[in-house]
Amino acid sequence: MQNIPVVKLGLIAVSRDCFPIELSKKRRAAIVSAYGDEIYECPVTVENEKDMLEAVKDVEGAGCNALVVFLGNFGPETPETLIAKNFDGPCMFVAAAEGDGDLINGRGDAYCGMLNCSYNLGMRHLKGYIPEYPVGTASDIAAMIKDFVPVARAVIGVKNLKIITFGPRPQDFFACNAPIKGLYEIGVEIEENSELDLLVSYKEHAGDPRIKEVCDDMASEMGEGKYFPDMLERMAQFELTLLDWAEAHKGARQFVAFADKCWPAFPQQFGFEPCYVNSRLASRGIPVSCEVDIYGALSEYIGACISLDAVTILDINNSVPAQMWESQIKGKFDYTLTDTFMGFHCGNTPSCKMCADRAVKYQLIQHRLLEPAGSEPDFTRGTLEGDIAPGEITFYRLQCDSEGVLRSYIAEGEVLPVATTSFGGIGVFAIKEMGRFYRHVLIAGRFPHHGAVAFGHHGKALFEVFKFLGVQNIGYNQPKSLPYPKENPWG
Fold this sequence. Notes:
Mean pLDDT: 96
Low-confidence stretches: none
Shape: globular
Largest sheet: 6 strands, antiparallel, barrel
Helix content: 25-40%
Strand content: 15-25%
């Protein structure tokens, strides 16, 4: 995966000066032994503010971009929390459990110290990642650190991300429109451009000597008979246009994502649909969301950072026909009819996440709208279509509402091995209590129809990322035993 941060972890132990400093040093070494070589052990044990500055300088000099602050004993409240203020990266706070010595000279009271640590972080308006139960042995804390790594990776990515857009939202797709205020609040930069800017740059790439290599790669990826040979040069030219634009325009940022207007003018002016190219960039960690869905691109990027895998964006599209549920799902899978739905988009899902029958085809809806009735598809070709491969998924989204407030949802589920018998990039999705989630989170929360999809169950890490970013409202598919606030108790 390209365009994704590499996390370099540092471990700083802290010690309150009325407790034995050797407790923190010994317990810090035990964590390094349990975790392995992928963490840098800071030699400075922090007891005061000068130690804190020295420790931060040391880990920065070692190239660390994420920290574990370890309370080996009670810990000094001011210096330990000021680490988070002075270090430019996400900080995790954990504490030592007792059990590695006597309970007189060997007792550290870090269980108590963590309370004061949290209190002081709040008093100073500082962010710190604190696990669900942040007290443990060396092996416990090593496991917590492993959970922290994808969270840190996503936070670092967001703080260094620029979203590049082309064009306004399509008419009647204002559901994808949202205030950009929320982007600035979490540190994301944005560059908005005209579709004409993109078209000019595309034309300048005509005859680019790299086009043949990209064409060969596209043909190899899809396989004979699964693409239109006459379109490869156009699509390769567009892929190079986006990649070069990203490199030339990311400025002070390290990472990029795109949100592009893909209809109705795009296929007519460029001569193809951009979906397949978008899918290829997404497979490399560079999301290109459809219909200028800025928060969709942001959501995709967060999922790519967490999963280190390809992601996609889909419409929460249509219900599963009752007869399909009766014949293909009922009795075979533990889902009700309203637990299921179809996720669809024109063809932007990476080929590695689709069944073997996937192929570059044409956009049926745009063909109806833009090309003569009964004609062979021409410029509406370029979608990557087929059923999405079965397996675990997480459906989620980070969104800014009309009041400028960030809100989100997360739901884990799966793509079922059920043939859709439909068009586009599409799959039969199943999420427990989807019907209630659909009504009381998606509809009641006024979320748009686009949802990001990560392949695998990543709800835990996504929840922690959204929480770290300051998102107060994080919806999820609650079980029947836990009604939603406005759910009618009488059904």
